[in-house]
Design brief:
Layout: H1 2-14, E1 16-19, E2 22-25, H2 29-52, E3 61-65, E4 73-75, E5 91-96
Antiparallel strand pairs: 1-2, 3-5, 4-5
Length: 97
């Protein structure tokens, strides 16, 4: 009798697992709903993080590593009479277009 109870408990426990606060069971609508809520929460966090990113205005001048300006940027041309001294040859000054 004890072996049967132990087997049943082991069997029941093996059908579920804990995944970040959601209990996942075979054929469980509640488990699916919990995971869907977690996905929605993560998607909202990504959206919030994107909104917090710093948006640089057109004309902003930034140093980039790699010697090449990224898309949306052009090499910065300082005004006449201004000398741009490059300390690191791997850096390039770029202006946002």
């Amino acid at each position: 009798m004890m072996k049967i109870i132990s087997f049943i408990i082991t069997l029941l426990c093996s059908f579920s697992a804990l995944s970040s606060g959601c209990e996942i069971e075979i054929n469980s609508k509640a488990s699916i709903k919990c995971l869907e809520r977690k996905i929605d929460s993560l998607e909202q966090q990504l959206k919030d993080n994107k909104q917090r990113n710093l948006k640089l205005p057109t004309g902003a001048v930034v140093n980039f590593k790699g010697g090449k300006c990224p898309n949306g940027w052009l090499p910065y041309q300082p005004p006449a009479g201004i000398v741009n001294v490059r300390v690191n040859q791997d850096m390039i000054m770029c202006e946002k277009i």
